[in-house]
Design a protein that fits this description.
The protein has 292 residues and is α/β, with parallel strands linked by helices. The protein has twelve helices and ten strands.
Length: 292
């Protein structure tokens, strides 16, 4: 399975403290219509760490059923311990997810050998693995050497790289000798990432601009550099506004402005401030998503 293009890091909509299953289904259908090429469910943007085990299963089952095999569904599977991550992956495979997005074990700060052994155990589940390098949240990152070593495992097929070092993708491409997907995990620099050899992006902003996000990926693939540059400049304000406060609060507010669901988040996350709303609203108005 080759992952590429715009893959949405899907929010988890809530209503009165419960997962809003109807809104979740509607969001999946909208993304299919808008050209999104993959969905990450129960990732950081989906508030996975704040979901119960039962809720996580509901979200994954809902997204898999709604997608109905039309685009890949990638389940976020991150935990400090190997055995808990393993259980998450087994469940995701049972539900019918196409792959697992697996962040490095957070909080425990394992050594590189521990990280390798962690993924070696997970490899035996038989579900394709997307490595997730996000040292800003997980503390433990994935060095280029570690990624190259992990790529030798049969089920490791891609990396989501949330890192501002744009030389990493060049170094990894030069050393990984198999079909492997390189995905940016940082919207504001995703265009620079694919210009360095990346295949696509796992995008927060795609929750509100899925078609434009896919169009910019297609423009690069088609070597339409004029369209690529125009869309890059057009989307930068949107990308930056989605991180004006702790994600996913701004993106959930933005999705609420489009009418799909409310902006409810779970503690310890809090709703965006009024000043942040103004920034998000300005970005949405500038590109014509909401009325000026």
């Amino acid at each position: 399975m080759k992952l590429s293009g715009s893959i949405v890091a899907l929010i988890t909509p809530f209503h009165n403290g419960e997962v809003n299953v109807t809104a979740l289904k509607n969001l999946v259908e909208w993304h299919l219509a808008e050209g999104t090429q993959g969905i990450v469910a129960c990732g950081s943007t989906g508030e996975a760490a704040l979901l119960t085990t039962k809720e996580r299963r509901v979200v994954l089952e809902t997204v898999v059923a709604a997608a109905a095999g039309r685009i890949p569904v990638i389940a976020g599977c991150g935990a400090p311990s190997t055995h808990e991550t393993l259980a998450m992956m087994v469940e995701a495979k049972e539900i019918g997810c196409d792959a697992a997005l697996v962040v490095t074990p957070y909080y425990v700060k394992p050594m590189p050998e521990g990280v390798y052994q962690h993924f070696k155990v997970l490899n035996d589940v038989g579900l394709p693995i997307v490595l997730y390098n996000n040292p800003g949240r997980a503390v433990t990152g994935l060095s280029v050497d570690t990624v190259v070593r992990l790529a030798e495992l049969s089920m490791v097929i891609a990396i989501k790289d949330s890192c501002d070092d744009l030389t990493r993708v060049i170094k990894m491409r030069q050393r990984i000798m198999k079909d492997f997907s390189f995905l940016s995990g940082d919207d504001p620099i995703a265009t620079a990432y694919i210009a360095q050899g990346g295949d696509g992006v796992v995008s927060v902003s795609a929750n509100v601009v899925p078609r434009l996000n896919q169009q910019i990926m297609q423009a690069w693939k088609s070597k339409d550099l004029e369209t690529f540059a125009t869309l890059r400049d057009k989307l930068l304000m949107v990308h930056e506004s989605m991180f004006v406060e702790t994600s996913p609060s701004p993106i959930k507010y933005a999705v609420s402005r489009l009418g799909f669901c409310g902006s409810e988040v779970r503690l310890p996350l809090v709703p965006v401030t009024e000043s942040a709303k103004e920034i998000v609203d300005h970005a949405l108005k500038t590109i014509g998503l909401v009325a000026a």
